[in-house]
């Protein structure tokens, strides 16, 4: 992904999130965080996608756990593997609380990311990570619900995909609380996740 594309995606994502939280109550906001507080945002209420074992999954399936969601695709050259590797680091940093975090990877490339490819990709980082997919319409709807941008970009032989590079964090009660920036360190991710766990 080019620097220009990355900047364009970042600005688009920030604009969408600003609109999502505009005018909302401040009473439930988190303080002293590194990410973007989405506690009162009207987005990402749930999802209905399929996991790599063929099971329909919704947010309700993960009650009692903090859930971190990243949208990407398995042929992503840098952003997606960086995000998933950082998630493995974060789980190590959480120590005894690691089991309270569930990482979900939602593909924006269901045409190429078959269940077998998706499972092999996400579990290579951590066997507990779950890959999710939908058909083209379901993928588009889920992305809209999260204000996630993605777009095919033709290459010489095929295509790549430009996409939003934020991670979304729910608390253990299924409330969306944070958008974590791709530029944050693993330490900053872990610190924000601890605050969300402590706020429940």
TrEMBL record:
Q: Which CDD domains match?
A: SCO
Cystine bridges: 76-80
Short name of any one Pfam family annotated for the protein: SCO1-SenC
**Signal peptide positions on this chain:** 1-27
Which parts of the sequence belong to the Thioredoxin domain?
Answer: 38-198
Among InterPro entries, the record links this protein to: SCO1/SenC, Thioredoxin-like_sf, Thioredoxin_domain
Which keywords are on file for this protein?
Copper, Disulfide bond, Metal-binding, Signal
Where, by residue number, does Cu cation bind?
Answer: 76, 80, 163
For this chain, one GO molecular function annotation is: metal ion binding
Determine if Signal is one of this entry's keywords: yes
Keyword Hydrolase found: no
Family as reported in the entry's similarity comment = Belongs to the SCO1/2 family.
Protein name per UniProt: SCO family protein
Organism equals: Corticimicrobacter populi
């Amino acid at each position: 992904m080019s620097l220009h594309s990355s900047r364009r995606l970042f600005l688009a994502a920030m604009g969408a999130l600003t609109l999502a939280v505009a005018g909302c109550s401040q009473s439930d906001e988190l303080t002293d965080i590194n990410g973007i507080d989405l506690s009162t945002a009207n987005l990402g209420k749930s999802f209905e996608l399929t996991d790599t074992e063929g099971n329909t999954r919704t947010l309700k399936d993960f009650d009692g756990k903090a859930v971190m969601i990243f949208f990407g695709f398995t042929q992503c050259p840098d952003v997606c593997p960086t995000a998933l590797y950082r998630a493995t680091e974060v789980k190590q940093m959480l120590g005894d609380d690691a089991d309270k975090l569930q990482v979900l990877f939602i593909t924006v490339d269901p045409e190429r990311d078959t269940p077998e490819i998706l499972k092999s990709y996400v579990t290579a980082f951590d066997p507990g990570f779950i890959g999710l997919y939908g058909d083209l319409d379901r993928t588009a709807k889920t992305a809209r619900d999260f204000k996630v941008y993605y777009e095919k970009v033709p290459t010489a032989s095929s295509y790549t995909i430009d996409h939003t590079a934020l991670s979304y964090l729910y608390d253990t009660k299924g409330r969306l609380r944070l958008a974590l920036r791709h530029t944050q360190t693993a330490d900053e991710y872990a610190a924000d996740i601890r605050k969300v766990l402590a706020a429940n």
